[in-house]
TrEMBL record:
One of its GO terms (cellular component) is membrane. It holds the Pfam family TAS2R. Gene3D superfamilies: Rhodopsin 7-helix transmembrane proteins. PANTHER family: TASTE RECEPTOR TYPE 2, TASTE RECEPTOR TYPE 2 MEMBER 40. Belongs to the G-protein coupled receptor T2R family. This is Taste receptor type 2. It is a multi-pass membrane protein. It is found in: Membrane. It comes from the Eukaryota. InterPro entries: TAS2R. The keyword Coiled coil does not apply. The chain crosses the membrane at residues 12-38, 50-73, 93-111, 131-151, 181-208, 237-259, 265-287. The gene is Tas2r40.
Length: 310
């Protein structure tokens, strides 16, 4: 019992550090974009996607941290109807909102920057600013539908255990919930796979477009701004692709180690899954000139304040 308790405390401590760092990064991104929105009275399509992505990740990290904290430290307060169902619903909703809005961002980079001359790509380029709000709305509707399904799956084990308050009945309810892990993971796998395929296609199209453009520019000694735009977009898409692949592997491993609460593999899976929203948002900040400029100002101001205090 002592080993399990120490493992839980260590896990909560590391999750808390990662969560608060990720919340700060995404809150910074949201605040900067909101201030720009108030000043300019309008946001471009890229900023709309980043704003919604930052909000989704902020709330996803907040709810995931609350779920992990309660499930490890105070499980008796979590496994009570309807607290668990509501937590699972909101966590699932913001998680899939995060995934699909990220996939929309990759698709946006692909269409906006690629230089294909096909009529379909030209049509998408012309209509892109009108398509983006509808894509974001569709992403949120799909995330809401998956959240409702997850709520329904989580609610089933409690139909016969709503009056169970004893420790023995609590463990019976937990055992019955294991039967519903596989439908939940099937839904999660479908969501990951759909957004993962969108990211892969975006990366492949951007790479092919960059290769074609470099072939055309070989005879031109002048620097091409289009190549620079391709490279910046590719850094964001490829970084997301690498972290997305790690996240997908963690999902598969989570299905294998879901019943092994105190294993080291479970601990590594949790660490990777909480690192993903923070690191990718930081990459997006440094790939955006406005966000990077404001972040450098904030860090330099903080450094100067520390020097004056010292």
């Amino acid at each position: 019992q002592h080993n399990v308790t120490s493992y839980g405390i260590t896990t909560v401590a590391i999750i808390s550090l990662e969560t608060f760092a990720g919340m700060w990064i995404n809150a910074f991104m949201v605040c900067v974009l909101c201030i720009a929105w108030v000043k300019k009275k309008i946001l471009n399509s890229n900023e709309k996607i980043l704003l919604l992505l930052g909000c989704s990740r902020f709330w996803h990290l907040s709810i995931s941290w609350a779920y992990s904290f309660l499930s490890i430290i105070y499980p008796n307060y979590l496994y009570v109807h309807p607290i668990l169902q509501l937590v699972v619903f909101f966590e699932t909703f913001f998680n899939y909102s995060n995934l699909w809005v990220s996939a929309c961002l990759c698709g946006f980079y692909c269409v906006k920057i690629s230089n294909f001359r096909k009529s379909f790509f030209i049509y998408l380029k012309v209509k892109l600013d009108r398509i983006v709000p509808w894509l974001l709305l569709l992403s949120e509707i799909l995330a809401l539908a998956i959240g409702i399904i997850a709520y329904d799956i989580t609610d089933k084990p409690h139909c016969n255990n709503r009056n169970s308050t004893g420790q023995g009945n609590f463990w019976k309810a937990s055992i019955k919930m294991d039967k519903h892990f596989f439908p939940a993971f099937f839904i999660a796998g479908f969501g990951y796979a759909a957004s993962f395929m969108a990211v892969i296609y975006s990366a492949v199209f951007l790479l092919f477009s960059l290769w074609r453009h470099k072939c055309k520019m070989q005879t031109n000694s002048m620097k091409s701004f289009s190549i620079d735009a391709h490279i910046r977009a590719m850094k964001s898409v490829l970084s997301f692709l690498v972290m997305y692949s790690i996240n997908f592997v963690c999902l598969v491993l989570n299905m294998v180690y879901v019943t092994k609460k105190g294993s080291h593999m479970t601990f590594l899976i949790v660490v990777f899954q909480y690192t993903f929203p923070s690191v990718h948002s930081l990459i997006l900040i440094f790939s955006n000139p406005r966000l990077e400029k404001v972040l450098r100002k904030v860090l330099s101001l903080q450094r100067s304040v520390k020097c004056k205090v010292c």
